[in-house]
Amino acid sequence: MTIQVAVAGASGYVGGELLRLIAAHPMLDLGNVTANTNAGERLGKFHPHIPEFKDRVLMETSVENLSGHEVVFLALPHTKSAQLAESMPLHTMILDCGADFRLQSAEAWEAYYGTPHAGSWPYGLPELTLADGGKLRGRLREARRIAVPGCNVTAVSLALAPGLTAGLIEPEEVVSVLSVGSSGAGRALRADLLASELSGSARAYGVGGVHRHIPEIEQNLMLASGKHASVSFTPVLVPMSRGILAVNTVKIGSRFSLEYLREIYLDAYQDESFIQVLDEGEFPSTGAVLGSNNVQIGLSFDEHAGRAVIVSAIDNLVKGTAGAAIQSMNIALGLTEQTGLTNVGVAP
Fold this sequence. Notes:
Layout: E1 3-8, H1 13-24, E2 28-35, E3 59-60, H2 63-66, E4 71-74, H3 81-85, E5 93-96, H4 106-113, E6 145-147, H5 151-165, E7 174-180, H6 195-198, E8 203-204, H7 214-225, E9 231-237, E10 244-251, H8 258-269, E11 275-277, E12 295-302, E13 307-314, H9 318-333
Parallel strand pairs: 1-2, 1-4, 2-3, 4-5, 5-6, 7-9, 11-12
Antiparallel strand pairs: 7-10, 8-9, 10-13, 12-13
Helix pairs in contact: 1-9, 5-7
């Protein structure tokens, strides 16, 4: 049995990563691929590393070209997915890799995106621990609409969730500084974020509480802790093509000890194929997760400042977006969760 899938926004970075994973998935058969300004071009122009699909021609992104597939992946700019999804058949499974359906709060959406809120869909972060018990995985089974998390959000949320759920760390006054590869800013980079400007340099962006991933991170921290959450979040674009290294500094709870924190994380993630808690004194690097659907997490305690420091690394295009979409789709379709995905990285 094969499942026919379509990819909208197939010429972009996320679209290309979806195509790479689809090519490796034994149950998926690629149908239509679409784009906006690149419609009419061959896929090989944008993704020569996927020779299997190089002669496919990009069609115009429309309801007509996407309907008729069992699964549709939307890799579109923010606010564009809602327009399409509203007219798509209800029986079609849609996974939105944009932000349109991630936020539950209409107020938060309108404050950060400046457009009317389109609603919220089941959220594709299966490993997230929940304050009321279990993990988000249970909400994805048989879902027909899934909102894929933001890449930065995944790095922060999975790094902090078990400690928050156990009450060992606090969800307020979280400080997260992320080193992000240039692909995290998308294919249509601003002039000040061009690769030539980044060579040998690093640059903070979305500084001062304005980055759109902030309300999504806080939403997840509240789900994990059951308490109000606040985060000071700063991404830093660094001269690497892909990857996120998140350094999260958090207040500790009254029952905190580093040994107990480690026990909590090992217990929470022991059965997760795509999350590794590193040994004491070890911390992740982006090179170790490159090309994989993995999250690696290192735990420490800054005794001088009285804060826990939790470091995580992901590949922003795999676990950060496309891999999360495939993983969530597998769960919703009742497939083995790991199908078509790998926890083995590639040499950087």
